[in-house]
């Protein structure tokens, strides 16, 4: 990336102190901070943020702009970032796409799950989504929608909030206490002001999960959508993903979710479980 004189001045004016890593990461002698920060930069790019400048990346990551410049330069050289449509902006390159494809197809889970998810979607005229945790988000790995339902702008690669989605609640209800506590600390650090809502939503979800083995999202993430979520747990209990199904609240009631959709979704989770490792 070419650095012009005004950009150099901007970098010099930017605060030079980088944020300290906290917790286990800061105490782990094998932890490579530069690698972690490079990955943080790649996570800034989403379907809604396809094209970013260095100042935006610095704001999103909390890193000083000189650090952002150096890391972006390296990612450009390696093909994980490429020049954006407009000058001095960036977008993800083919290297990221290759990594994403490898991740989605690493176990054949995505291909294996799709026809099974389609059966559930068409049987109940709903959407079915499979996702795994990525930091403070749930990353969609596979999604299918029945043709007749209200369509949302969700697709493979979309990230939903870990603390504010049925996918996230299902995941948090199924993981062990230590993993849940670590995830909650990340959520609190990311958004201290919104953390009380996360705790309230999770408390409700855990009560539902204890009673029915599912969690409900009845208009909380989207006022017109009702959804139900279940975890997908590997046979050894070490890997957890999540499934969610839903549709327009006018046709997908809580009763339908509990009485019709939940059994199908739980059965789907059981069939996917052996594929997780």
Question: Which features does this protein show?
Answer:
277 residues, alpha+beta, three-stranded antiparallel sheet, 11 helices, 18% strand, globular, disordered N terminus
Task: Kindly describe this structure.
- The protein contains eleven helices and nine strands.
- The strands form two sheets. The chain has a six-stranded antiparallel beta sheet. A three-stranded antiparallel beta sheet has the order 1-3-2.
- It has helices at 5-13, 23-27, 33-43, 54-61, 65-78, 94-104, 109-124, 166-174, 177-190, 195-212, 254-272; strands at 52-53, 81-83, 89-92, 127-134, 137-145, 159-161, 215-218, 225-233, 240-248.
- Mean pLDDT is 84; it is low at 1-21.
- Helices cover 48% and strands 18% of the residues.
- The longest helix is centred in the last third of the chain and has 19 residues, at 254-272.
- The chain has 277 residues and is an alpha+beta fold.
Given the C-alpha coordinates, what overall shape results?
Answer: globular
Biggest beta sheet attributes:
6 strands, antiparallel
**Number of contiguous helices:** 11
The assigned structural class equals: alpha+beta
The quaternary structure here is single chain
Tell me the Rg in angstroms. 20 Å
Reconstruct the topology from this structure.
Elements lengths: L4 H9 L9 H5 L5 H11 L8 E2 H8 L3 H14 L2 E3 L5 E4 L1 H11 L4 H16 L2 E8 L2 E9 L13 E3 L4 H9 L2 H14 L4 H18 L2 E4 L6 E9 L6 E9 L5 H19 L5
Helix pairs in contact: 3-5, 4-5, 7-11, 8-10
Quick summary of this structure?
With 277 residues, the protein is of the alpha+beta class.
């Amino acid at each position: 990336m070419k650095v012009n004189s005004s950009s150099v001045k901007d970098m010099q004016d930017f605060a030079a102190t980088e944020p300290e890593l906290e917790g286990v990461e800061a105490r782990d002698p094998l932890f490579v901070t530069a690698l972690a920060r490079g990955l943080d930069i790649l996570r800034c790019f989403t379907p809604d943020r396809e094209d970013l400048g260095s100042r935006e990346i610095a704001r999103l990551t909390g890193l000083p702009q000189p650090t952002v410049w150096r890391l972006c330069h390296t990612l450009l050289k390696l093909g994980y970032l490429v020049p954006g449509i407009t000058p001095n902006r960036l977008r993800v390159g083919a290297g990221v796409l290759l990594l994403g494809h490898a991740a989605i197809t690493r176990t054949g889970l995505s291909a294996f799950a799709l026809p099974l998810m389609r059966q559930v979607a068409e049987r109940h005229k709903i959407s079915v989504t499979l996702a795994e945790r990525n930091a403070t988000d749930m990353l969609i790995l596979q999604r299918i929608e029945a043709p007749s339902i209200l369509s949302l702008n969700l697709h493979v690669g979309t990230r939903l909030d870990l603390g504010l989605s049925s996918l996230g609640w299902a995941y948090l209800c199924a993981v062990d206490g230590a993993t849940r506590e670590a995830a909650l600390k990340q959520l609190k650090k990311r958004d201290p002001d919104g953390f009380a809502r996360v705790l309230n939503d999770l408390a409700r979800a855990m009560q539902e999960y204890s009673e029915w083995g599912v969690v409900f999202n009845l208009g909380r993430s989207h006022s017109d959508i009702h959804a139900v979520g279940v975890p997908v747990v590997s046979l050894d209990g070490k890997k957890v993903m999540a499934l969610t199904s839903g549709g327009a609240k006018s046709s997908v009631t809580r009763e339908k979710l509990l009485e019709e959709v939940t059994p199908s979704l739980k059965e789907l989770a059981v069939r996917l479980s052996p594929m997780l490792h």
